[in-house]
Design a protein that fits this description.
12 helices, elongated, 490 residues, five-stranded antiparallel β-sheet, 17 strands, alpha+beta, single chain
Amino acid sequence: MHCNRLKRIGCGILSAFLFFSVFPKASFSVYAAPATTEEALTQAEERKALPIQTNQIENWPAGPAIGAQSAILMDANTGVILYAKNADERLYPASTTKLMTCILAAENSTLNETVTFSHDAVFSLTHGSSNIGIDENQAMPMEECLYGILVASANEVANAVAEHVAGSMDAFAERMNEKAAELGCKNTHFVNAHGLHDDNHYTSAYDLALIAQEFFQSELLSKIGNTSYHHFEPTDSQPDDFIERNKHQLITGEIPYEGIKGGKTGYTDDARQTLVTCAEQNGMKLICVVMKEESPEQFYDTVKLFDYGFTNFSVVNVAENETNYSIRNSNFFHTSSDVFGNSNPILSLNQDSYLIMPKTTVFDELDSEISYDTEEENEVAIINYYYHGAYVGTATVDLADEKSATYDFTENVPEEIEKEPNIIIVNIKIILIAVLSIAALFIAFFVIRAMIDRHNFLYNRRTIKKRRKKIGRRKEGPHFPSSRFDDFNF
């Protein structure tokens, strides 16, 4: 349900009452927007004293104190959390909401689809909110809409895309919540596609990092989200010619930082400054989220967190370090020309699996647990690794990839050929069935042979008895008082 501006305060109070009645354990910050700049700076200074969750982990690198109410630093590929401060606290996302809007747009449309702007898309917004001046009944390709949302943070464009994808803005918000749940978000609820303030529109730093993780898996969205400015050229359906510049200072280079991959800014009076950024260095692709901060500290806090992550953590390949689950030490289920011989194994640790570990830690200090609950093709098991209870990554135990060798008999054979080890995929069930079948045939063979031998033995015995009786009945011929047949014990 949407509340108009006159009813928003009353609806906010009612929503807060219902929320805390139904979810008494949920964490949600309710702060009035600071009335003055001095008050905002005072609140930011107070937030620096808030505890940092990851600093409670034994021997974990100490993270920097920052003025954001909530923040997180996450590896985009593994989901390992390097830094967390109030990461599950429910806060207002402002325009960082638009990351989810663009995820759904990219999943449910093509770039050349035409998006037409309705009256509601243009005029349902708060006066003075971020826009690029598109009028009712004008239209733009979806690709231009994505630039409008991510570079210019245009709210009317977010509305038009929502209507285009889902039929209505309310239906699109439902899809946003469904997608958030699919991504694992636990403290997120969206009511619009743009992020303008609504008491029922919230997320957390951790959930926003999960959404960003999905966003940066898309090369298209990453490219658009890392654009410093965009030229909107006039068309028959949109006559204006103008350039919009990104407000993300790490993307524009106003605050230079190596390896920036994109991001999104956000601001409302209630949310304060929010910022999502992705950067890649040293084999790590990190996502940083800061929420409820004061400008321009959201950018400098992001730099502090990136520096903390890239300086104190490193990528560690599992297969090169793991010994407890070393498949190569096993003499069973190996494959080559001799299926059960001493050759390459069918199972192996995934060579690409890696962990994000503190540089002061060695691999042997990690704890691990193995799970066979996997539905992925060619995966047999999953090994999760922890350092003093903190998750640092996962490795998989995989079946060897099937390789089909081809040979062109018309080619001359070179004198020296660099041979790769043969890998044979063995179906263990079929092998066991074959072995049991062969064993059954051997057993049947020996049983039948034993039966034949017994039959021959009994036949010979009867023959000898008959012969003996016949000799006893003879009336002529020599008498044998001690016949050789007396030596048989029948």
